Amino acid sequence: MTRKRLPRPEPAHDDLFTHAELYPVRAPQDSLRPVDLSLRVKTAMGRALAECPDSAAVVAARMSELTGRTITTDALYAYTAPSKPDHDISIVRFIAFVRATGATWLWDLLVHDDGLVVMEGREAHLAQLGLMRQQQRQLGEAIRSIERDLQQRPVKVATCRRSAPFVRGER
């Protein structure tokens, strides 16, 4: 039985960065835009807490264990309450919250306005591979261009007249 060869993907399909739905390409937001990050973080944390299979008490206990400081369920609810704008979470407690809930998508929320995308594990390797293939194609195109140029205009080697051999110590 002979194997049927699959058609080779077109170069555009081989480039992971062309798939915006897999790897969104972002630009930094206008710096004049008012920052409503606190409200977005609180809302997203509330969603993460609601989606977490563990109770708020278990999440608070895990956060306490991770930070070495007591974090109560009431404090956790205050961090996720849009109605409490003065009760923002510290970065150390935010890290503990992400780890306790497993809501790693929260990192993407934090860096979105700066035009960044968070990737983890295999996603990062796939993106790196896509970039390397892109660079490889560009390098191949540059090599072919130089080869074409050399074929069209070969290098002329200058001929040298040989003079008498130089013997050390003579002038």
Outline the secondary-structure elements:
Blueprint: H1 11-14, H2 37-51, H3 56-67, H4 73-79, H5 91-101, H6 105-111, H7 122-152
Helix pairs in contact: 3-4, 3-5
Can you walk me through this structure?
With 171 residues, the chain is mostly helical. The chain has seven helices and no strands. The protein folds into two domains: 10-25 and 117-143; 35-113. Helices cover 51% and strands 0% of the residues. Helix 3 (56-67) crosses helix 4 and helix 3 (56-67) crosses helix 5 (91-101). The model has no long low-confidence stretch (mean pLDDT 81).
Quick structural overview:
This protein is mostly helical and 171 residues long. It is built from seven helices and no strands. The longest helix has 31 residues, at 122-152.
Notable characteristics:
mainly alpha; elongated
> What low-confidence regions span 5 or more consecutive residues with pLDDT below 50?
none
* Helix vs. strand class: mainly alpha
Compute the separation of the termini in Å: 79 Å
How much helicity do the residues have? 40-55%
Q: What is the succession of H and E elements?
A: HHHHHHH
Share in β-strands: under 5%
Radius of gyration over alpha carbons?
Answer: 30 Å
What would you call the shape? elongated
Query: Largest sheet, described in full?
Result: none
Query: How many H/I helices?
Result: 7
